[in-house]
Amino acid sequence: MPDGGARLAEAAFRSDWAALGDVGRDARSGGYRRFAWTPEDATLREWFLGRAGGLGMEVVTDRCGNLWAWTGDPDAAVAAGRAPLVLGSHLDSVPDGGAFDGPLGVVSAFAALEMLRAAGRAPERPIGIACFADEEGARFGIACAGSRLLTGELDADRGRALTDAQGTSVADAMAAAGLNPAHVGRDEEALRRIGTFVELHVEQGRALIDESAAVGVASAIWPHGRWRLDLHGRADHAGTTRLPDREDPMLRLASAITTARAAAHQHGTVATVAKVHVHPNGVNAIPSQVTAWLDARGPDPDAVRRVVTEVSTAVGSEASEESWTPSTELDVPLRDRLATLLGDAPVLPTGAGHDAGILSAAGIPAAMLFVRNPTGVSHSPAEHAEEADCVAGIEALARVIEDLA
Ligand code: HGY
Ligand code: MN
Ligand code: MN
Known about the structure:
By secondary structure, the chain is α/β, with parallel strands linked by helices.
């Protein structure tokens, strides 16, 4: 890639980062709230349309609300046996999330394409850039909802019926955003257009720091899931109810939290209870109901399930599985080809779920590039990537396009 390429990548990155920087940003924490099918989401989708349009790319929305920008006719390429290379990621966030988780992959895809065009390189296959809907599941509770609906891994009726804390369903939220929820479901046409999918993502850990590498390649995604705990109690007065007479569900919540941590430590997994709804949530009222969500993950799926079982036993009621992602090994030949292409880049597993994992599980050759995060922190305003490493990621993605397309 000629020298000018790095400068162009830097300029494209800076421009996009400036355009996205304030969307859904909390001035106090510096974190982001970019939830699916909200005004912030609509602004981000508008940005995506404008960014793609500026590159002469046609954008289509699939049945599940995922956006696809194309440099050429994907169907003609599929018919000619040259199914497109697709890049991209997501733009939504967790509550108070970082700036890079998701957007770095989308921004880098556009910049890499621009780099190639400026260098006069025309890929032989159309390039697609995807923006998956609701990857974090922050509002409706199921992570990678857009890609799971696309592949059929998440049942359309179940997906439409998911509700947020205010009781708004996915169907109503999508309709309010101008989509027809009746169309939601496995989208063969959209899936057929993906020859190979490569997602660039900020690393959500410290491996690349320890390896002194700006860019790495993913090997696998740990099995992981989300379970709901419904803990019933009996509402009563905090000041007049004798201790022996109390049915306080907060005690079972405390047991769930400490058991999750101890079992995770014992079984070599990770687990947390990070979302809790307390009803009625009054300082001086013993709760009648506590709903809590357990997130558990680890290299060994049986160990993860042991953690969930021990938490269920501790609280005296069965944790209800809301989502489960089995261990996902990303395409091995593709992984090795990219690691070699990128100068023997480190190859590392991740405990984070990604749309690339959902597509891989659906049989689509998929790979991931990671960009170094000097904090190692993610799902937090502290998440970070140095601009030079972001440019290195864009250059790596441009090389991947040249190699694969
Ligand atoms: O939860 C995850 O691993 C991803 O960030 N959705
Ligand atoms: Mn995330
Ligand atoms: Mn992500």
